[in-house]
Protein backbone atom coordinates (compact mmCIF):
# COMPACT_ATOMS: atom_id res chain seq x y z
CA UNK A 1 0.00 0.00 0.00
CA UNK A 2 1.51 3.26 -1.14
CA UNK A 3 0.58 6.49 -2.91
CA UNK A 4 0.41 6.01 -6.69
CA UNK A 5 1.41 8.82 -9.09
CA UNK A 6 -2.22 9.28 -10.14
CA UNK A 7 -3.25 10.04 -6.55
CA UNK A 8 -0.91 13.03 -6.42
CA UNK A 9 -2.38 14.40 -9.66
CA UNK A 10 -5.97 13.92 -8.43
CA UNK A 11 -5.07 15.55 -5.09
CA UNK A 12 -3.65 18.52 -7.05
CA UNK A 13 -6.96 18.77 -8.97
CA UNK A 14 -8.87 18.78 -5.68
CA UNK A 15 -6.56 21.45 -4.26
CA UNK A 16 -7.08 23.57 -7.38
CA UNK A 17 -10.87 23.26 -6.87
CA UNK A 18 -10.75 23.50 -3.06
CA UNK A 19 -13.09 26.50 -3.00
CA UNK A 20 -15.93 24.40 -4.41
CA UNK A 21 -15.49 21.45 -2.01
CA UNK A 22 -16.87 22.59 1.37
CA UNK A 23 -20.12 20.74 2.10
CA UNK A 24 -19.91 18.55 -1.00
CA UNK A 25 -20.65 14.84 -0.60
CA UNK A 26 -17.57 13.03 -1.90
CA UNK A 27 -16.96 9.29 -2.23
CA UNK A 28 -13.55 7.89 -3.05
CA UNK A 29 -13.63 4.40 -4.59
CA UNK A 30 -10.59 2.12 -4.53
CA UNK A 31 -9.19 4.52 -1.96
CA UNK A 32 -6.22 2.55 -0.64
CA UNK A 33 -4.11 5.07 1.30
CA UNK A 34 -6.75 7.67 0.39
CA UNK A 35 -4.70 10.74 -0.56
CA UNK A 36 -7.45 12.28 -2.76
CA UNK A 37 -10.20 11.57 -0.20
CA UNK A 38 -8.06 12.95 2.62
CA UNK A 39 -7.38 16.09 0.56
CA UNK A 40 -11.12 16.51 -0.13
CA UNK A 41 -11.91 16.13 3.59
CA UNK A 42 -9.20 18.64 4.55
CA UNK A 43 -10.80 21.05 2.04
CA UNK A 44 -14.19 20.75 3.78
CA UNK A 45 -15.97 18.02 1.82
CA UNK A 46 -18.08 15.38 3.57
CA UNK A 47 -16.06 12.32 2.57
CA UNK A 48 -16.68 8.59 2.52
CA UNK A 49 -13.70 6.39 1.67
CA UNK A 50 -14.23 2.97 0.14
CA UNK A 51 -12.21 0.04 -0.98
CA UNK A 52 -13.05 -3.57 -1.69
CA UNK A 53 -15.16 -5.28 0.95
CA UNK A 54 -13.15 -8.39 0.04
CA UNK A 55 -9.90 -6.73 1.17
CA UNK A 56 -10.28 -5.81 4.86
CA UNK A 57 -6.62 -4.75 5.09
CA UNK A 58 -7.34 -2.04 2.48
CA UNK A 59 -10.24 -0.76 4.58
CA UNK A 60 -7.96 -0.70 7.62
CA UNK A 61 -5.43 1.38 5.66
CA UNK A 62 -8.23 3.87 4.88
CA UNK A 63 -9.08 4.07 8.60
CA UNK A 64 -5.41 4.57 9.50
CA UNK A 65 -5.12 7.39 6.95
CA UNK A 66 -8.09 9.10 8.60
CA UNK A 67 -6.57 8.67 12.07
CA UNK A 68 -3.16 9.98 11.00
CA UNK A 69 -4.82 13.05 9.44
CA UNK A 70 -7.15 13.72 12.39
CA UNK A 71 -10.31 13.11 10.34
CA UNK A 72 -12.61 11.08 12.62
CA UNK A 73 -15.68 12.30 10.71
CA UNK A 74 -14.66 10.46 7.52
CA UNK A 75 -16.52 7.17 7.11
CA UNK A 76 -14.98 4.05 5.58
CA UNK A 77 -17.13 1.46 3.79
CA UNK A 78 -16.42 -1.71 1.89
CA UNK A 79 -17.62 -1.61 -1.72
CA UNK A 80 -16.77 -4.24 -4.28
CA UNK A 81 -17.14 -2.99 -7.84
CA UNK A 82 -19.99 -4.59 -9.73
CA UNK A 83 -21.63 -6.03 -6.57
CA UNK A 84 -24.77 -4.71 -4.94
CA UNK A 85 -24.34 -4.64 -1.17
CA UNK A 86 -26.05 -3.09 1.84
CA UNK A 87 -23.25 -0.53 2.06
CA UNK A 88 -23.71 0.46 -1.59
CA UNK A 89 -27.49 0.71 -1.21
CA UNK A 90 -27.10 2.78 1.98
CA UNK A 91 -24.82 5.40 0.44
CA UNK A 92 -26.40 8.85 0.23
CA UNK A 93 -26.35 10.69 -3.10
CA UNK A 94 -22.86 11.98 -3.89
CA UNK A 95 -21.76 15.19 -5.61
CA UNK A 96 -18.32 13.91 -6.60
CA UNK A 97 -16.86 10.42 -6.89
CA UNK A 98 -13.07 10.19 -6.79
CA UNK A 99 -11.18 7.38 -8.50
CA UNK A 100 -7.41 7.42 -8.61
CA UNK A 101 -5.87 4.77 -10.87
CA UNK A 102 -8.82 2.39 -10.58
CA UNK A 103 -8.79 1.85 -14.36
CA UNK A 104 -5.81 -0.46 -13.98
CA UNK A 105 -7.04 -3.89 -15.12
CA UNK A 106 -9.30 -3.83 -18.22
CA UNK A 107 -11.36 -6.75 -16.87
CA UNK A 108 -12.47 -4.45 -13.98
CA UNK A 109 -13.56 -1.51 -16.16
CA UNK A 110 -17.16 -2.66 -16.61
CA UNK A 111 -17.61 -3.49 -12.91
CA UNK A 112 -16.31 -0.04 -11.99
CA UNK A 113 -18.65 1.68 -14.43
CA UNK A 114 -21.58 -0.47 -13.27
CA UNK A 115 -20.99 0.79 -9.73
CA UNK A 116 -20.59 4.39 -10.94
CA UNK A 117 -23.79 4.10 -12.98
CA UNK A 118 -25.69 2.91 -9.90
CA UNK A 119 -24.36 5.90 -7.92
CA UNK A 120 -25.27 8.26 -10.76
CA UNK A 121 -28.87 7.03 -10.52
CA UNK A 122 -28.99 8.50 -6.99
CA UNK A 123 -27.75 11.89 -8.24
CA UNK A 124 -27.70 12.27 -12.03
CA UNK A 125 -25.54 15.40 -11.69
CA UNK A 126 -22.71 13.58 -9.90
CA UNK A 127 -19.29 13.71 -11.53
CA UNK A 128 -16.55 11.10 -11.45
CA UNK A 129 -13.17 12.79 -11.10
CA UNK A 130 -10.64 10.19 -12.16
CA UNK A 131 -6.96 9.96 -12.90
CA UNK A 132 -5.32 7.03 -14.58
CA UNK A 133 -1.87 6.12 -15.77
CA UNK A 134 -1.64 5.32 -19.47
CA UNK A 135 -0.27 1.80 -19.63
CA UNK A 136 -1.43 0.62 -23.04
CA UNK A 137 -2.77 2.33 -26.15
CA UNK A 138 -5.09 -0.66 -26.54
CA UNK A 139 -7.09 0.17 -23.39
CA UNK A 140 -10.06 2.44 -23.86
CA UNK A 141 -13.11 3.39 -21.86
CA UNK A 142 -14.90 4.99 -24.78
CA UNK A 143 -17.08 2.01 -25.78
CA UNK A 144 -18.03 1.29 -22.17
CA UNK A 145 -18.82 4.95 -21.48
CA UNK A 146 -21.12 4.94 -24.51
CA UNK A 147 -22.77 1.71 -23.35
CA UNK A 148 -23.46 3.21 -19.90
CA UNK A 149 -24.65 6.54 -21.37
CA UNK A 150 -21.72 8.49 -19.93
CA UNK A 151 -19.46 11.15 -21.36
CA UNK A 152 -15.87 11.95 -20.60
CA UNK A 153 -14.00 15.24 -20.64
CA UNK A 154 -10.20 15.10 -20.62
CA UNK A 155 -8.79 17.83 -18.38
CA UNK A 156 -5.38 19.15 -19.47
CA UNK A 157 -2.91 18.73 -16.62
CA UNK A 158 -1.47 22.19 -17.20
CA UNK A 159 -4.90 23.71 -16.46
CA UNK A 160 -4.45 22.86 -12.75
CA UNK A 161 -0.67 22.88 -12.38
CA UNK A 162 -0.13 19.11 -12.67
CA UNK A 163 1.98 19.05 -15.83
CA UNK A 164 5.28 18.84 -13.95
CA UNK A 165 7.40 15.89 -12.88
CA UNK A 166 6.96 16.97 -9.27
CA UNK A 167 3.84 18.32 -7.61
CA UNK A 168 3.60 19.72 -4.08
CA UNK A 169 7.17 18.60 -3.33
CA UNK A 170 6.36 15.03 -4.45
CA UNK A 171 8.31 13.41 -7.26
CA UNK A 172 5.63 10.74 -7.60
CA UNK A 173 4.09 11.86 -10.88
CA UNK A 174 7.57 11.65 -12.36
CA UNK A 175 7.61 10.78 -16.04
CA UNK A 176 4.43 8.71 -15.92
CA UNK A 177 1.74 9.62 -18.41
CA UNK A 178 -1.27 10.47 -16.26
CA UNK A 179 -4.67 11.51 -17.60
CA UNK A 180 -7.33 13.48 -15.72
CA UNK A 181 -10.95 12.75 -16.62
CA UNK A 182 -14.32 14.09 -15.55
CA UNK A 183 -17.04 11.55 -16.32
CA UNK A 184 -20.76 12.26 -16.10
CA UNK A 185 -24.04 11.20 -17.65
CA UNK A 186 -24.11 11.93 -21.37
CA UNK A 187 -27.54 13.55 -21.26
CA UNK A 188 -27.15 17.30 -20.96
CA UNK A 189 -30.71 17.65 -19.71
CA UNK A 190 -30.02 15.88 -16.39
Automatic annotation (TrEMBL):
Coiled coil: none annotated. It comes from the Eukaryota. Its EC number is 2.1.1.319. One of its GO terms (molecular function) is heat shock protein binding. It is an enzyme of class 2 (transferase). The keyword Lyase does not apply. Keywords: Chromatin regulator, Cytoplasm, Developmental protein, Methyltransferase, Nucleus, S-adenosyl-L-methionine, Transferase. InterPro entries: Methyltransf_16, SAM-dependent_MTases_sf. CDD domains: AdoMet_MTases (cd02440). Histone methyltransferase that dimethylates histone H3 at 'Arg-17', forming asymmetric dimethylarginine (H3R17me2a), leading to activate transcription via chromatin remodeling. Maternal factor involved in epigenetic chromatin reprogramming of the paternal genome in the zygote: mediates H3R17me2a, promoting histone H3.3 incorporation in the male pronucleus, leading to TET3 recruitment and subsequent DNA demethylation. Interacts with HSPA5, HSP90B1, TUBULIN, UGGT1 and UGGT2. Interacts with TET3. Interacts with STPG4. Belongs to the methyltransferase superfamily. METTL23 family. This is Histone-arginine methyltransferase METTL23.
Amino acid sequence: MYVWPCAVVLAQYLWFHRGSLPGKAVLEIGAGVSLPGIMAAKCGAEVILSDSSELPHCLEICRQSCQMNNLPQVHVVGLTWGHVSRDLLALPPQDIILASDVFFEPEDFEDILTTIYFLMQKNPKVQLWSTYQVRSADWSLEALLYKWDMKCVHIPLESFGADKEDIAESALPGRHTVEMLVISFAKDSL
